[in-house]
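Annex B.
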Amino acid sequence: MIKELKDFLFKGNIVDLAVAVIIGGAFGAIVTSLVTDIITPIIGMVIGQPDFSGIMLGSIAIGNFINAVVNFLIVGTVLFFIVKAANKAMKTPAEETPAGPTQEELLAEIRDLLAKK
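Large-conductance mechanosensitive channel: predicted structure tokens.
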């Protein structure tokens, strides 16, 4: 049973997932800070402080939901551009593929194979 537990805990997928969750949490803090401390104040300077929390529909606080949706859209947009920039920065030049045989070489090989029969 201990061997099974060890195999489960130290599978490559489990360790990779744990690292991804931890890195994701730390990266989430960076994105949240970027949105809260930089992007939202810039938006506030341009269009005024975006706060919908006072909007009520009867006793339903729909404004809080609108704030969450707007925050989600801002975070998603910022994350999109961060990932796009990271992918561009990490892109490696395509490895040169070895050139295959020419059409003439292939035809000569087929001719030789047919001649052997």
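The chain has a mean pLDDT of 81. The two ends are 62 Å apart (CA to CA). Further annotation is deferred to the next reporting cycle.
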